[in-house]
């Protein structure tokens, strides 16, 4: 069981780290702490790989990919007009604005809105403090919806990155000692696709069995013929 865990969870997919940074409660500093804690807690002896994993390198890779992705979105949407400001009429929305916009409003008074929407958008977001209490039902997508006028480019990233499908399988199936039908890192296949792969695999095995049956009697016949010729 331990070897299975070390096999599948020694590396954290970078897309998870990018999605983590797009959570306004955490961002980059908390991601670095989580990566350090993860490897120190689950892999203290670094026995999961022949090559030692450097948590700082893992963080730097996620950080670089996050900035590259932002630059791509900025090149595509940087000149787009900011979205219309949405207002909330419910009392729940007012309390949400109170803790979500507290630090943001203080910074916006000192920084013009046009400057926020330029290249300074990313630095403003990464230094933004969001007030929240642990255990609250914090809606990340709602936060981005309410702040998309201040962060037009990052809000587009926040809409697309969490929407990427994650392939999952049952724990009993993933850690089964019987092995996998397709591969260790298979995606979630539809029943028809899985049936096609299984049938194709069975046909290949049947073809090999047929070839072996055909070759074996031929070799046996040749051996008998040779022995018979020598005996004569």
UniProtKB/TrEMBL annotation:
Entry superkingdom: Eukaryota
Report a single Gene Ontology molecular function: protein dimerization activity
Q: Which residues form the HAT C-terminal dimerisation domain?
A: 122-204
Q: Which SUPFAM superfamilies match?
A: Ribonuclease H-like
Matches recorded under InterPro entries: hAT-like_transposase_RNase-H, HATC_C_dom, RNaseH-like_sf
Which Pfam families has this protein been placed in? Dimer_Tnp_hAT, hAT-like_RNase-H
Protein name as annotated? HAT C-terminal dimerisation domain-containing protein
- Every hAT-like transposase RNase-H fold domain range: 1-73
């Amino acid at each position: 069981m331990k070897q299975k865990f070390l096999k599948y969870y020694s590396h954290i997919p970078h897309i998870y780290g990018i999605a983590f940074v797009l959570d306004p409660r955490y961002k980059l500093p908390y991601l670095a702490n989580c990566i350090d804690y993860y490897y120190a807690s689950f892999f203290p002896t670094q026995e999961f790989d022949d090559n030692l994993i450097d948590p700082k390198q893992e963080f730097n890779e996620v950080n670089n990919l996050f900035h590259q992705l932002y630059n791509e979105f900025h090149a595509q949407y940087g000149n787009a007009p900011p979205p219309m400001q949405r207002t909330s009429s419910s009392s729940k929305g007012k309390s949400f604005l109170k803790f979500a916009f507290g630090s943001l409003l203080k910074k916006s008074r000192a920084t013009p809105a046009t400057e926020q929407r330029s290249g300074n958008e990313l630095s403003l977001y990464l230094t933004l403090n969001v007030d929240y209490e642990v255990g609250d039902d914090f809606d990340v997508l709602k936060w981005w919806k309410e702040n998309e006028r201040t962060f037009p480019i990052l809000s587009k990233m926040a809409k697309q990155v969490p929407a990427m499908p994650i392939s999952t399988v049952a724990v009993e199936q993933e850690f089964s000692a019987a092995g996998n039908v397709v591969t260790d890192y298979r995606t979630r296949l539809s029943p028809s696709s899985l049936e096609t792969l299984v049938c194709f695999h069975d046909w290949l095995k049947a073809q090999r069995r047929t070839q072996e049956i055909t070759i074996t009697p031929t070799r046996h016949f040749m051996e008998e013929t040779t022995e018979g010729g020598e005996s004569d």
